[in-house]
Amino acid sequence: YIGIFSYIRELFSQVPDSRIRGYSASRFSFNLAGGRCELCAGDGLIKVEMHFLPNVYIPCDACKGKRYNRETLEIQYRKKNIAEVLEMTISEALQFFSSIPPIRRKLEVLEDVGLGYLQLGQSASTLSGGEAQRVKLSKELGKAKKGSTLYILDEPTTGLHFVDIQKLLTVINSLVDSGNTVIVIEHNLDVIKSADYLIDLGPEGGDEGGRVIAEGTPEQVSMNTSSYTGQFLKDKLIRHDFVHTAS
Strand pairing of 53-59 and 150-154? Predict the structure, then answer.
């Protein structure tokens, strides 16, 4: 999605064995005939129809889930074939391709938004909503900074560890510092207390919500006794100030 695979395919096509065999970058695409496994059409999986039950997907017998045919897998870059590279996590690939600037820069952005655990070849359909948003965000971060873009993120911290949330906040703040505007729909208090301006909707969910209960800076919202968010936020801000004072 963010263009890394194009660089990797080109890299494999420049390996001496590839040049001898006349392989181009397209040989290393699992979407095109030639280098992919034709039994599974490059999916690595075979669909088994279960009639009245949901379909089941099993690893392809021909390629064992590798997606490519035997000839393509014989080509190696730094002792790894294309399938082994795609099985790497973002963090592993960042070290592996550290000497290739175009690939390294894109991987660094994915790492910065807390996606280091994803595999390079992971299907987009397996990503959660929050992960998909962060992949799109990383693509934007890779572009030239224009400083005139509005970003809307819907609960991007879902499923994230505290450390990864801090990484994401750093990325969001860098977008804001570049002159962009970021609107985040979020329930995580670590994100909420970091906002420049809050709009708290409530007082409840569904039909009992949708009204503006409080708005302003985190400190202003925390002083609003009608805001549930403000009540929890006040405690969070007090503890934050206490930690900074103690340190």
Answer: unpaired
Describe the chain by its helix, strand, coil percentages, rounded to 5.
45, 15, 40
Residue 245 pLDDT level (bands cut at 50, 70, 90): very low
* 3-state DSSP of 185-217: ECCCHHHHCCCCCEEEEECCCHHHCCEEEEEEC
Phi and psi of 102, rounded to 5°?
Answer: -60, -35
What confidence tens digit (pLDDT) does each residue in 76-101 have?
999 999 999 999 999 999 999 999 99
Tokens of 1: 């999605």
- Long-range contacts from 43-50, C-beta under 8 angstroms, 24+ separation: 43/67
Q: Distance (Å, rounded) from C-alpha 139 to C-alpha 109?
A: 8
Q: What pTM value is reported for the model?
A: 0.74
